[in-house]
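During the reporting period, our protein records have gained a structure token line. One record among many is quoted in full directly below:
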Amino acid sequence: MADTGEGDSEYRIKEGDNVVLKRGDIFKAVQIQLKKKIIFEKQWFFLDNAIGHLYRSTFEIVSGNLQAQTAKTTQSSSDAKEAGTDNRNIVDDGKSQKLTRDDIETLKEQGLKGQEIIQQLIENSSTFRDKTEFAQDKYIKKKKKKYENTIMILKPSCRILAMMYHGREPGKICHLRYDTLAQMLTLANIHAGSKVLVFETCAGLVLGAVMERMGGYGSVIQMYPGGGPARAGVENFGFPAHFHDTLHDFPICHVNALLAGTLDTSHKDTNKKESDQAAEDKQNQPEAEPQDSPEEQTMETGGNNETAMDQERKEKEQRREAKAEEKRRKLAAAAALLEGRNADGLIIASRFHPCPVLMGLLKFLSPSRPFVVYSQYKEPLVECFTKLKEHGGTVNLRLTDTWLRHYQVLPNRTHPLLLMSGGGGYILSGTTVAVDSAKPSGSTPAEEPATKKMKLTDTVE
């Protein structure tokens, strides 16, 4: 292990860090904890030995523990190999490999590492030396993927987590691809010190990407549906504590009340709920023992049980009051930020229909501010486009789709990959403008200039 100086401490793996494990094209987000068993790609291991190493280090799994790989062990197994000129005379009949499956299992039981097993496969292949250099590299890469038990530990970032979700659980993020997410952040002009509204149902990935771009400066207001905000993806970023101080949440169901000025963040509603809960607890309270019970010991025990139940009920009520007070405080803080209607940007990426959400949240933006709406399908955004055109107050409306193709970039064999993502969704973007309230919002034909009318009259005469 290298010297763990303070200069590069932020680039080294520490206990409690959120990291991303990478093996081939597969990613998994975990937290570094001592003696915690991790299961990744049908293998289990502990991450204790990774503490203190630099991020992007490669480790080999040996008997459930991680062993750091050096530069020598990561070299190709085919250095200075003998290669053929073409593959025309090679027949894939399954008889070229002398080692059987049982032989390979025996090598594993003897403790041979993945690289040593690959070397044995190369030496026992009758057609390996007849293959071209490109075919040999492809063969070795395929065997490494199967037999080498190596993983790389990465520092979480917006791009890595977006690739992880899109590769493993695309439905959780509404099939939002990472290049589409990058376009959304750019079109919304996300930067440090701004006030941004986010409405998303992408497991917190979009929210985390916005917070990462802002760097802990400014304000992020998450508009959430249902009982509470979903932030599973935000936790995977592993942000410092001061990042969460800039994060606020506001229920989408209270937007109309806030716009109408009827939102009440006082104690009235909560006190009513607490009184109802107290009445319900009193109704569910068990009946007391009769006073003329013949057994004093039973009465004494019953009294102690009632005292313990009263104490427990008081503690629950205190916790409930503290939680309700904290919720009221957060709601009031978020409402205070929204009441100014001076937000700098809006991002919507949801499985719900975006049109009513967009028309409601646009009212919180200042003039000349960008907004971006993502949808997996085009039709909801077409409806939003038409609605915005009719309503007015926006300019530079653009509805686009995104397309991405991966390329293999290798010496003398650069070409597009055969498999690629079919679609990256659709993006509606635009800019808000101030609307003159004295004029109707609908589109009215402009009056012709006086000079033009005079010229037309002369022509008629």
In short: DSSP finds 14 helices and 16 strands in the chain. The chain has two domains: 9-155, 159-265+325-442. The chain has a mean pLDDT of 81. The two ends are 97 Å apart (CA to CA).
